[in-house]
């Protein structure tokens, strides 16, 4: 497997930027040197299987976890020492929100609205009603899905410049999920917010993301525009006698019972496929997003 990205200096004006971020828990690697920039106004879908390292990367990017190696910047500031001004521009929704659980949603909104100059009270009222969320029950007594949606309302109401959602769809039913992703795309489009959301659901990416990043076993294997993936990656089939010619840096390789080999390959800068694609009997097949992820995650 090869890391596709080649980056040098951190992008100082990027809302989020990490270089060489590595982390381990109890000696087990969770992140193995990740480089990633989020350009302003982008909606980045971070996809990966369970345990790929998505939450760890998000927490390191926001300075909520000190990585063993590497550097994370938020709006150009070191993530571990963010100014209050930078913090006020960020909204983060963790996978399982727990903060302020002894308050009702109304009490939490009243409290938080004082800290955010752009707090959108009308959005809160409208969305709490539309999502049929209880406003006067303490949040500890809400279902995980309700609790997560209240937290999403909280995050969106602050009208952040940077919105980070860790598996926002995990506890949502399909209607709420579609609603949320529409809202996220709208925010980025109209307000110019930058969004990062993690998921393991490919259709969520297709609905909302402008860019995708694929994390596998703590490594970023791919980062590109959503529409670009179909053009840029394909499955190369090589018949049994030709499999030795497979490019060494393919994103995945599967040997089949008949001795043939399939690998996921990337176009070169000049648009060409690897040389092996021109061998007799070789075939290049287009890959949908779902197939691409299944191929490289296996
Ligand atoms: N606090 C922790 N202590 C020990 N190991 C941890 C801890 N948090 C995460 N891990 C391990 O680190 C790896 C990456 O976990 P992480 O939660 O970042 O993955 P993820 O991609 O967000 O997974 P999921 O999609 O299941 O939420 C996993 O193997 C996980 O078991």
Automatic annotation (TrEMBL):
PROSITE patterns per record: ABC_TRANSPORTER_1 (PS00211), ABC_TRANSPORTER_2 (PS50893)
Domain ABC transporter: 16-242
Domain of life: Bacteria
Signal sequence range: none
MF-aspect GO terms: ATP binding; ATP hydrolysis activity
Keywords annotated in UniProt: ATP-binding, Nucleotide-binding, Transport
Gene3D superfamilies tied to this protein: P-loop containing nucleotide triphosphate hydrolases
Protein's name according to its UniProt entry: ABC transporter ATP-binding protein
Source organism of the structure: Oleiagrimonas citrea
